[in-house]
Amino acid sequence: MDYQAYLTWLNEIDDLSPEQRLETGRLLAGQPSLEAVIDLLEARVRTMRACPHCTVGGMVIRGRANGLSRYYCKSCGKTSNALTGTPLARLRHKDRWAEFAASLSDGDTVKISAERCAVAGSTAFRWRHRFLRAVTAGAIKLRGIVEADETFVLCSRKGERNLDRKARKRGGKAPKRGLSDEQIPVLVAVDRSGTTISAVLPTVSAAHLQVVLQPVLDPDALLVTDGCTSYPPCAAAMGISHESLNQTAGERVRGELHIQTVNSRHERFKTFLRRHRGIATKYLDSYLRWFHLAVLPRHPTPRAVLTAAAGILPVRQCA
Ligand SMILES: [Zn+2]
């Protein structure tokens, strides 16, 4: 943190409530990350007191269980704790979550995660997708020059029933290049501040592009793409300015316009995926979340991973 930002941050400390001061103190004292996150979760429930089962407020504390306060709802008679309703509810071995979060941050394979946390491979796999389920990018706006481009990821259909082709060894090549039922399109868009969004597309059509881009594009943005014919009607439908580069004719840069940032994001995503070979189509979205959580921000702390996994905070955006 630069000195000016640090001074601003110090000034804001004055506004902390006594409870927030206590929490911050524990954090600064180097409290283990899981307890810090559970503190955050508990604090959220303590303030809201809304029942996760029936949404009525006014829950009361009735003792503790598994290291968490147990809340009782007078309206529906059910009990809950700070994790109820989050993807981390009912996962066991809480004492290993911080290590698992560190392992996610490192981009470990299932095998390595399982060894680090001393759990079965199947557990590490389940945890990974549970931890990634609540990870969101938050409310994002892409502003100014926005590069958008799709890339294709080779996905296996392992574990799916009714395989309509011969089984292929994992990590292999698709029989056809380009768009086939195994090359899944992934749209990535990035502005010049480095803010990035991505999404798995059913197909690269103007309508599907619009569903992803419309909510995140600032109305004043300038969309830059390659010559793919789906972008002009999409930009027109959104009322967004659009420039396309004729890359097949060798046009890579025109003044300030290029799509090199988004293409380097593609490369990083593919490099990240290479370690996890044989990705099933249904998990591709989960890997994208992981990319936004741990690869783009470069090694977030286990606490940042846990707060994202618990759905408390969106992932941090950075260049
Ligand atoms: Zn209730």
How would you describe this protein?
37% of the residues lie in helices and 14% in strands. It has eleven helices and eight strands. It has helices at 3-12, 18-28, 33-48, 97-105, 110-117, 121-133, 206-213, 231-238, 260-274, 284-295, 302-309; strands at residues 60-65, 68-72, 79-80, 145-154, 183-191, 196-200, 222-225, 241-244. A five-stranded mixed beta sheet has the order 6-5-4-7-8, with helices on both faces. A three-stranded antiparallel beta sheet has the order 1-2-3, with no helix packed on it. Helix 5 crosses helix 6 and helix 7 crosses helix 8 (231-238). The longest helix has 16 residues, at 33-48. It is globular and about 70 Å long. The protein starts with a helix and ends in a 10-residue tail after the last helix. Zinc ion is lined by residues 51, 53-54, 56, 73, 75-76, 78.
